[in-house]
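As a warm-up, study this chain.
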Amino acid sequence: MDSQTRTLLKKSAEDEQILFISTISDTIAAFHAQQAVEKLMKALLAELGIDYPKFHDLNWLRARLESVGEVFPATPVDFAEFIPFATVWRYDDPPEEVVLDRAKAVDTVRILREFVVKRVAELNRQV
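Now compare it with the structure written out below.
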């Protein structure tokens, strides 16, 4: 496993653990959900040997992975729904109608983590 992949998987797990702290706000939880998803996608890119930019665009990362044949599993939350929490609402409150379903966010990150870990293991068996 590539060292950058290992680091990104570790850091994404740290972000994921924040989602289980009930005393933090949904805005902060959503920010860390976005960060976990971003790092998981970048981990897979790193393992595939594909450079990635240092930005937070989950749509771009997903499209880049799909362009090389990766097929993401269905998740309760579309990754793009997390983007504003890392950009627009990182320093401002989201509108009142924006509500995070934390359980779905947790499931989304978990599903993506399982997918990425499985793909990384498959890629390592191919070497």
